[in-house]
């Protein structure tokens, strides 16, 4: 019997789904300060919808390497006006946070997905908040903390180690009451990984399909691109970001967290059209 196709947060995954990044922060690595004003962030998010975003990921705390934590009150002050301003936009809202109180308040404001860089381990109340609210979650892998995660990341084998970690997280969360169909996983490119680890994950990401949940890939504008080619500013890494996204789609990734929605959508559409032409 053919298995039922995977879905996530009500979205069918028979085509690439794009999660548009909306950083309401002064210090994110790529666009820090660009959208700190709530109305600018809302306008930016609406442009992303027009460009084809299926999900809007709203974040108020930078977790770039070396970033400093902020209070939950400051995080909420940044993101809640944006989430409230987008609540009726007709597009899924995700909150990018590792704090249970922020999750709770963002869900009340209209978020339907929680995207947590700690895979719901950073706050002891996170899992119960998500389970009680019935939201979908993205579990990301991060070795260490943002302040220190790039100091000396170490793995036996990045794919095998992170697979085992995610398998344990899925088992623990399902035992706690979080249904498997509510979960998407993200191997966490650049979060406690060096270039070798990142490339190993990207080349072997199809191994994670054995976990039976959708895969999200966040490669957009990340610094590993400059370690392969020349060193350029984050906003000049679009081509490398798209190349990595196409490699992910070719290996079965279903959801892509991106800054450049229109460009990524076009590239993936052309790639898919070429691949599908083999059957004509």
Explain this structure to me?
The protein is of the alpha/beta class. It has one domain (about 15-280): TIM Barrel. It has nine helices and ten strands. Helix 4 (about 125-135) links the parallel strand 6 (about 115) and strand 7. Helix 3 runs parallel beside helix 4. The two termini are about 25 Å apart.
Instruction: Kindly identify the CATH topology.
Output: TIM Barrel
- Low confidence ranges: none
CATH class: Alpha Beta
| The number of domains | 1
The average pLDDT value, as a whole number, equals: 93
**Would you report the number of β strands?**
10
Largest sheet: 8 strands, parallel
Could you say which structural class the secondary elements and strand pairing correspond to? Answer: alpha/beta
| Largest beta sheet: strand ordering | 8-7-6-5-4-3-10-9
Radius of gyration: 18 Å
SSE topology sketch:
Blueprint: E1 7-8, E2 11-12, E3 17-23, H1 38-51, E4 55-59, H2 72-86, E5 92-96, H3 100-109, E6 113-116, H4 126-133, E7 136-140, H5 158-176, E8 183-186, H6 195-203, E9 216-217, H7 224-228, H8 238-250, E10 255-258, H9 261-276
Parallel strand pairs: 3-4, 3-10, 4-5, 5-6, 6-7, 7-8, 9-10
Antiparallel strand pairs: 1-2
């Amino acid at each position: 019997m053919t298995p039922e196709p995977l879905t996530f947060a009500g979205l069918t995954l028979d085509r690439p789904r794009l999660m548009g990044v909306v950083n309401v922060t002064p210090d994110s690595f790529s666009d820090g300060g660009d959208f700190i004003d709530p109305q600018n962030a809302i306008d930016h998010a609406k442009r992303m919808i027009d460009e084809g975003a299926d999900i809007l990921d709203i974040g108020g705390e930078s977790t770039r390497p070396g970033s400093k934590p902020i209070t939950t009150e400051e995080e909420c002050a940044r993101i809640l006006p944006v989430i409230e301003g987008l609540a009726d936009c007709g597009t899924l809202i995700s909150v990018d946070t590792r704090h249970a109180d922020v999750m709770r308040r963002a869900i009340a404001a209209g978020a339907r997905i929680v995207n947590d860089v700690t895979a719901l381990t950073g706050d002891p109340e996170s899992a119960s908040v998500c389970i009680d609210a019935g939201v979908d979650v993205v579990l990301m892998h991060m070795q260490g903390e943002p302040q220190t995660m790039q100091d000396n990341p170490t793995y036996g084998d990045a794919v095998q180690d992170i697979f085992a970690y995610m398998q344990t997280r899925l088992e623990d969360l399902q035992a706690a009451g979080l249904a498997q169909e509510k979960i998407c996983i993200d191997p966490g490119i650049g979060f406690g990984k060096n270039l070798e680890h990142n490339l190993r994950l990207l080349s072997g990401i199809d191994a994670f399909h054995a976990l039976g949940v959708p895969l999200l890939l966040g490669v957009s504008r990340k610094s590993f691109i400059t370690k392969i080619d020349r060193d350029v500013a984050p906003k000049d890494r679009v081509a490398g970001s798209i190349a990595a996204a196409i490699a992910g789609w070719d290996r079965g990734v279903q959801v892509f967290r991106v800054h450049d929605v229109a460009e990524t959508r076009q590239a993936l559409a052309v790639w898919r059209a070429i691949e599908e032409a083999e059957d004509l």
